[in-house]
Amino acid sequence: MSSSPPAAPAAPHEPAQPIQPALPASARIRQRLQAARCRHHANDNIAAFVHEGELEELKAEVQAKAQELLHALVIDTEGDHNTHGTAERLARMYIDEVFRGRYQPMPAVTEFPNAERLNELMIVGPITVRSACSHHLCPIMGRVWVGLLPNEHSNLIGLSKYARICDWVMSRPQIQEEAVMMLANELQQRVRPDGLAIVMEADHFCMHWRGVKDDETAMVNSVMRGAFLKDANLRREFLSLLSRKGRA
Ligand SMILES: [Zn+2]
User: What pLDDT sits at residue 53?
Assistant: First the structure.
């Protein structure tokens, strides 16, 4: 008579779980944004929703999609050594460079109390603008001038910080009208001046490279707040100083 081998101890019962493929980083970040009901248009900063290491994952994802784009354009990226690394270069350029203002937090800016109680018109600029249009992702290259009328309660920030904040706002796909408003909001919050004026003058390469192919077109936008809105003399003074500072 043969005895059956002792039964193996029963494994603890585990409910059958369908194996979920891991969500790509873009989907995880989007889920967090949607859960927080946070707008994530092209010109919004989403750094607070990106966890450590996810930018590298995003880059790999963008690279794979860019490769599909080149494929759809019937470009032989295997045979054409010039385009062999283009998908990877595009991914790095978008995430690390030209659109980094979406993915990186606001640069640290130290604010100083207005100890000298400065209350005279201050002009910062021209600050170089490098951006891209939201419609075609074509470059926008231009200049920005900032006019400030501080009061005794204003916080002052170092001159170079205006350029850093401007760069952070502009390094996103933008619409010029919205870009100047966003920059004004960031500066208003930090400096709290009595008056704030911003003028942006820029070349939109989607007008040069495609479309009407007009090489003379530059777009000028301005935002005037507080004292610059109420006081025509102050506004005139600001604009006349700009033309002396080399604005066409
Ligand atoms: Zn465009």
Answer: 96
Ligand 1 mean position, distance from CA 6 (Å):
75
C-alpha 40/C-alpha 102 separation (Å) is: 9
Read off the CATH number of the domain in which 37 is found.
Answer: 1.10.286.10
Q: Could you tell me the two tokens for 26?
A: 């873009």
User: Residue 197 sits in which domain range?
Assistant: 111-244
How far apart are the CA of 215 and the centre of ligand 1, in A?
Answer: 14
Any domain includes 17: no
138 C-alpha vs ligand 1 centroid, how far in Å? 6
Confidence class for position 8, pLDDT limits 50, 70, 90: low
CA of 129 to the centre of ligand 1 (A): 16
Between the CA of 173 and the centroid of ligand 1 the distance, in Å, is 10
Cα separation, 67 vs 98, in Å, equals 19
